[in-house]
Amino acid sequence: MQKTLTFAAVAAVLTLAACGDNDLERGVSGAAIGAVGAELTGGNAVTGAAIGGAAGVFCDDLTPELCR
């Protein structure tokens, strides 16, 4: 169950982090989504924010077809 929730949280971060026009916007939204997702799944919000923020910032570099 924990793996399913973690996968869902990561998928949400990657999907919703694409909703910004630049790296800063994607990073901020990714950090917020990551923190909330971590709290909902019983994880550490700071770690979730760091992972979500990184996913948002680097989304367009790693998968440009998903982030534009």
Could you tell me the mean pLDDT?
Answer: 81
So how many helices? 3
Classify the beta-strand content into a percent band.
under 5%
Oligomer: single chain
Number of strands: 0
Query: SS-based structural class?
Result: mainly alpha
The proportion of residues forming helix, as a percent range, comes to: over 70%
Structure description:
The protein has one domain (2-62). The model has no long low-confidence stretch (mean pLDDT 81). The protein has helices at 2-16, 23-40, 45-62. By secondary structure, the protein is mainly α. Helices cover 75% and strands 0% of the residues. It has three helices and no strands.
List the keywords.
68 residues; mainly alpha; globular
Describe the protein's topology.
Layout: H1 2-16, H2 23-40, H3 45-62
Question: How would you summarize this macromolecular structure in one to three sentences?
Answer:
The protein is mostly helical and 68 residues long.
